[in-house]
Amino acid sequence: MASDELTTPRSRRALLAAAAGAAGALAAQAAMPLTAAAVDPDDVALGVPNASTATTSITQSTDALVAFKAKTTTTGAAGLIGSTGDETSIATNTSFTGAYGWAPTAASPTFFATGLWGDSDDVGTYGSGYVGVRGDGFVGVYGRGDATGAGVVGQGGAGGYGVIASGATATDVGLAVTGKVQFSRSGRSTIRAGRANIRVNLAGVSSGSRVFAVLHSNRTGRYVRAVVPTTGYFVIYLNGTVTANTFVAWFVIN
After folding, report:
1. What is the dihedral of CA 181, 186, 174, 163, to 10 degrees?
2. What is the distance between the alpha carbons of residues 14 and 9, in angstroms, rounded to a whole number?
3. DSSP H or E stretch at residue 20
4. What is the pLDDT of residue 148?
5. How far is C-alpha 244 from the chain's CA centre?
6. In this predicted model, what pLDDT tens digit does every residue of 17-67 receive, in sequence order?
7. 41 - beta bridge partners?
8. pLDDT confidence of residue 245
9. Cα 156 to Cα 204: distance, rounded to the nearest angstrom
10. How confident is the model at residue 78 (pLDDT cuts 50, 70, 90)?
C-alpha cells in the first residue's frame, strides 16, 4: 500500500512555502562573499602568497597591449619586485621604484649574482631621465665588451660630456686606467727635410686648446720650440730645420 505522504496531494500553501524557501537559499548563496566560494587551487589569488611548483606565464597576443602590469597607487613601495634565493638582505624600502630586482651573493666565486638582467641583440637595458642609469656599490657600473666591442660607451650632446670621471674630493682619483689608452685627438706628423715647422689641421682646435708635441725621431740639437694653436689647426715649431724627414708626436686637450 502506498503511504499517505505520497498519495495525498500537497496543499497550495505547502507548495508556495517550498518555492519561497528555495528562492531564499539562492539569494543567500548569491550574497556570500567571493572568498567563501570555491576557488580552483590552480588560480592566482589576490592578497595571499601563491605557491607553485611550475612556471606561471601570461601570453598577450593582441598588438600594442601590455601582457602584465603591476602598479602601486602610492610611492611608498615598488610596483613590482622580482627576487631569487635568500631574501635576508633584500631592501626593506623600495620607495619611488617601478621595478626592483634582488639576488643574493653567488655561491661560486666565478659567477656574479644578478638582481636585474636585460638581454637583447640591440639594447639589453635602457634608462632615460635626468640620470639614465645609476650604479652604487664597490663597483658602481661594470661593463665588459666582446672581442671587438666596448665595455662602456658614453656619448655627450652639444656642449655636454660623454663621460665625467671625478673623485669624491679634490685629492681623490677621478680616472684610473689599466692598459693602453687611445685618443682620437692625438697623432704623429712628419716634418719634411729642410723645414722647421708643420701645420696640423684638426677640427675643434682653438686658441684655448692645450697642444703638446715631442720629437719621435732622433735629431741631434733639434727640439720642439713651440706649439701654437688657432681655429681649426695648430703649428709645431722646431728650433731649426731638419736635414731628414722627422716624426713629431702631438696630443691635444680642449
Report:
1. -90
2. 10
3. helix 12-31
4. 87
5. 54
6. 555 555 555 555 555 555 545 556 678 888 999 988 999 999 999 999 999
7. none
8. 98
9. 15
10. very high
Q: For residue 75, what are the contacts with CB-CB under 8 A and spacing of at least 6? A: 95, 96
Residue-wise burial string across 198-228, b where 16 or more C-beta atoms lie within 10 A, e elsewhere: bebebeebeeebebebebeeebeebebeebe
What is the distance between the alpha carbons of residues 201 and 245, in angstroms, rounded to a whole number?
19
| Cα 199 to Cα 135: distance, rounded to the nearest angstrom | 44
Which residues share a beta bridge with 214? 249
Question: How many other CB atoms sit within 10 Å of the CB of residue 122?
Answer: 5
Q: Domain coordinates of the chain in residue numbers?
A: 186-253
Cell numbers for 180, please give them: 693602453
Residue 91 has pLDDT above 60, yes or no: yes
Looking at the DSSP assignment, which residues form a beta bridge with residue 191? 246
Helix (H) or strand (E) run with residue 83 in it: strand 80-83
* Average pLDDT, integer, range 196-211: 97
Q: Which position has the grid cell 626592483?
A: 100
- SS3 (DSSP) at 92: coil
pTM here? 0.63
Average pLDDT score, the chain? 86
Spatial separation of the C-alpha atoms in residues 225 and 6, rounded to whole Å: 129
| Cα of 232 vs its chain's centroid, Å | 38
| SS3 of residue 29 by DSSP | helix
